[in-house]
Amino acid sequence: MPDSHEIPVRVRYSETDAMGYLHHANYFVYFEMGRTELLRAQGGNYRLMEEQGLFMVVVELECKFRQPAYYDDLLTIRTRVTRITPAKLEHEYQVLRGTSLLAEARSLLACVDRDGRVQRIPEEFGT
Length: 127
Known about the structure:
By secondary structure, the protein is an alpha+beta fold. It is built from two helices and five strands; from the N terminus they run βααββββ. It has one domain: Hotdog Thioesterase (Thiol Ester Dehydrase, Chain A, Roll), CATH 3.10.129.10. β3 (74-84) and β4 (88-97) form a beta hairpin.
């Protein structure tokens, strides 16, 4: 089961700001896409998990921006699991344009039920 995964993303015009840069909020959308596709590559499924009444909520999210991305840039979003506990999952991300590092980030997610109570991550989801 892979602990890292890469996806290509092309910056759309609607994702840019008035200066033509990829707007900073969209990086966080890309990170979620990376997490989802990594879980899928591992054989997991967020939808199934939610149907079972369990949700992965973001507890912490930080990003360091190194260089801007622009409209029509083809980016690679590299996502890696760095730590798993019974109820939490930590990821690291890199946003690359070719070999240039544009941004790097880290997130911490917790598994909760519909009432927001912390739960164990089911075995089929990586624990």
